[in-house]
Amino acid sequence: MIEVFLAIAVLIAFTILLSLYRAALGPGVFNRVAAVSVIGTKTIVLLVIIGYYFERPLFFDISLLYAILNFIGTLAFAKYLERGEVWS
Amino acid sequence: MVIIDVIVTLFLAAGIFFMFTGVIGLLRLPDFYTRLHATGKCDTLGEVLIIVGLLLDHIYYYVYLLPEAPLSVKLVPVKLIFLIVFIFLANPTATHAIMKAAYKTGVKPWKLGEERR
Q1: Nearest CA in chain A to B72
Q2: Would residue B114 count as lying in a domain?
């Protein structure tokens, strides 16, 4: 089972590398924000699989925290781009 | 036992298929709105499928087969269920927020015949 986890982790890292193209070269700021959000949500699953691969249950807490931080970061970026300020 | 490994591998393969579909949509589709249309749904479903596969694996190997495991290991499925619920709530909300911000600041939707942007 550990080989399957390693293969899935490598494939997720490859999808992150593919979406890094859109984050680096995408025309306009909205494409970049969307690509960074996608990378963040893929990183959550990558952290969970790394926790199974190294058999450390600590990684699940890190992935929960990363999910919350990624969500708040995306919302703050969207509100800033919409209104010109984060808090109105 | 082999059958649980087959089920978990099928869940993980379905999840990685949906994630690849979302990334191909993010790279290939012509417009910002269509790109978010691809990633907003495919990524949510793919990640939830992968986490459900890992959840079944954990429940079989660490809760069912290993009853003397410590409590911190036995409570890991609760964290994974929290993660599934949070992804199902937060990922479409973030997509909707970015799309609303783009629409209010005047990003025009792509129409057939225009060039890619």
Answers
A1: A57
A2: no
Tell me the ipTM for this assembly: 0.87
Domain that holds residue A34: 2-83
d(Cα B70, Cα B103) in Å, to the nearest integer?
51
Q: Each residue of B1-12: pLDDT tens digit?
A: 688 899 999 999
DSSP string, B67-116: TT--HHHHTHHHHHHHHHHHHHHHHHHHHHHHHHHHHHTTPPPP-TTSPP
B16/B43 Cα distance (integer angstroms): 9
Using CB atoms, pick whichever of B98, B107, B117 lies closest to residue A78.
B98
Mutation site for B-interface testing, chosen from A45, A70, A79, A80 by largest number of B Cβ within 10 Å: A45
